[in-house]
């Protein structure tokens, strides 16, 4: 059972890391070339649509499967150590702390700026560079978590 859970953890964390990487290397650079008005409007819509359905399922699976693999008794403690590092450091604790403390407040401020009629140039200036730095940190953490889960599968 632990082997199956680790395999599912590899798939889930790989999908999550891939999403984060594509956002970092493809979506944000493309959005970066838009005008302020276009960028702000696009990010607002992305922030409304992404945290739903498939994305939330993959994100949660990247936490649940490594945790479940740890909960299943087994003889292979070296795999458990890899999974513990992945779940604790890479995914659950650090990545979600960065998201909750950094990216979500920026997303909320971006959404609120639509109601207040703030100037798109100022909104973008307050959002884009900081959000991108935080997303880089999240991407590195999730990618490290993925590598650790892969290490667990090989242990």
How does this model look, in words?
With 155 residues, the protein is mainly α. It has helices spanning 2-32, 36-49, 53-71, 77-116, 120-154. 90% of the residues lie in helices and 0% in strands. It starts with a helix and ends with a helix. The mean pLDDT is 89. It has five helices and no strands. The chain is elongated and about 55 Å long.
Largest sheet: none
| CA-atom Rg in angstroms | 18 Å
Number of strands: 0
Q: Counting H and I runs of at least 4 residues, what is the number of helices?
A: 5
Alpha-beta classification: mainly alpha
Tell me the distance between the termini: 15 Å
* Helix content bin: over 70%
**pLDDT averaged residue by residue:** 89
β-strand amount: under 5%
Low-confidence stretches: none
Briefly, what is this?
By secondary structure, the protein is mainly alpha-helical.
SSE inventory with pairings:
Elements: H1 2-32, H2 36-49, H3 53-71, H4 77-116, H5 120-154
Helix pairs in contact: 1-3, 1-5, 2-5, 3-4, 4-5
Notable traits:
single chain; elongated; 0% strand
């Amino acid at each position: 059972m632990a082997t199956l859970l680790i395999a599912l953890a590899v798939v889930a964390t790989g999908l999550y890391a891939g999403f984060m990487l594509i956002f970092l290397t493809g979506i944000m650079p493309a959005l970066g070339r838009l005008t302020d008005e276009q960028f702000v409007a696009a990010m607002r819509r992305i922030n409304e649509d992404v945290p739903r359905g498939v994305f939330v399922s993959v994100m949660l699976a990247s936490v649940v499967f490594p945790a479940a693999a740890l909960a299943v008794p087994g003889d292979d403690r070296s795999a458990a150590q890899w999974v513990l590092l992945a779940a604790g450091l890479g995914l659950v604790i650090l990545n979600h702390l960065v998201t909750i403390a950094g990216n979500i407040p920026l997303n909320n401020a971006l959404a609120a700026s639509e109601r207040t009629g703030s100037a798109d140039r100022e909104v973008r200036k307050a959002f884009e560079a900081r959000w991108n730095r935080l997303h880089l940190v999240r991407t590195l953490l999730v990618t490290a978590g993925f590598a650790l889960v892969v290490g667990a599968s090989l242990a």
